[in-house]
Design brief:
- The protein has a single domain, classed as Porin (Beta Barrel).
- Helices cover 15% and strands 59% of the residues.
- It has two helices and ten strands.
- It has an eight-stranded antiparallel barrel with strand order 1-2-3-4-5-7-8-9.
- It is elongated, with a radius of gyration of 20 Å.
- About 2% of the residues have low confidence.
Length: 234
């Protein structure tokens, strides 16, 4: 794919309209309500625990089948841990703020340009987790499940000739806009020591974020996380 993809989106962002502000607010309310309801159920059940999660992201985007350079970012939020068969089988829903996007660079006639797509998401993963005891207070963890994402905002960034230009990404359904909603599946593994869970995961985006005819743009990336769980019988 030509580097002009980034310049085209960059220019289109000047004139595209963001027509989904109210829709964004409504979906955010629904996501918050759903997650808070899950956390409330957790607080009423002695076996269930919940707590903060934070981590480091390395994300990319598949654009028309081509991938680019990884973009570093972070994630933070809350998760619940709901045992179904003791600690062997459980469900972990969460509500996270997560940074995504990609990076790229090109050089033409000795002029180098750096491009970046920066996206901020509210994500709600719902993972099924398996735990295998390896000691009195330690476990190996495997997990997988779907996630939903709502873009809170983002920008295109271009650096060239010592200058930096940043343009807000327009969200909507027109050809020059980016779909605000994302979904996909996640896979991960990790270890648990007492109340601390340390994991690595991979998210595979399945939603096409592009509205241009014949074009595809999907999120993907790695996450390295730490979770501390409160409550429950631990």
């Amino acid at each position: 794919m030509e580097k002009s993809f980034f310049l085209r989106n960059f220019v289109e962002a000047f004139t595209a309209k963001n027509k989904t502000k109210n829709q964004k607010q409504n979906i955010m309310k629904k996501l918050f309500t759903t997650t808070l309801a899950l956390l409330l159920v957790a607080s009423l059940t002695a076996q269930i625990s919940f707590g903060p999660r934070a981590g480091f992201n390395l994300t990319n985007m598949s654009i028309d089948g081509e991938t680019f350079d990884f973009r570093p970012g972070f994630q933070a939020g809350l998760v619940a841990h709901i045992p179904l068969l003791g600690e062997f089988l459980s469900i972990q829903p969460g509500l996270l703020f997560a940074q995504q996007g990609n990076r790229d660079s090109s050089e033409d006639h000795g002029i180098k340009a750096n491009f970046a797509t920066n996206l901020n998401y509210l994500q709600m993963p719902i993972n099924v987790q398996l735990g295998f005891g390896i000691g009195e207070n330690a476990r190996i963890l495997l997990q997988a499940g779907p996630y939903l994402g709502l873009a809170l905002g983002g920008n295109y960034k271009v650096e060239a000739l010592g200058q930096t230009e940043t343009i807000d990404i327009p969200f909507g359904s027109d050809a020059g806009e980016v779909n605000r909603f994302d979904f996909g599946v996640g896979f991960g593994a990790g270890v648990q020591f007492g109340r601390l869970q340390i994991g690595v995961g991979y998210n595979l985006g399945m939603a096409n974020l592009s509205n241009a005819d014949g074009a595809t743009m999907k999120n993907n990336g790695l996450a390295f996380t730490a979770t501390w769980l409160f409550g429950g019988n631990r």
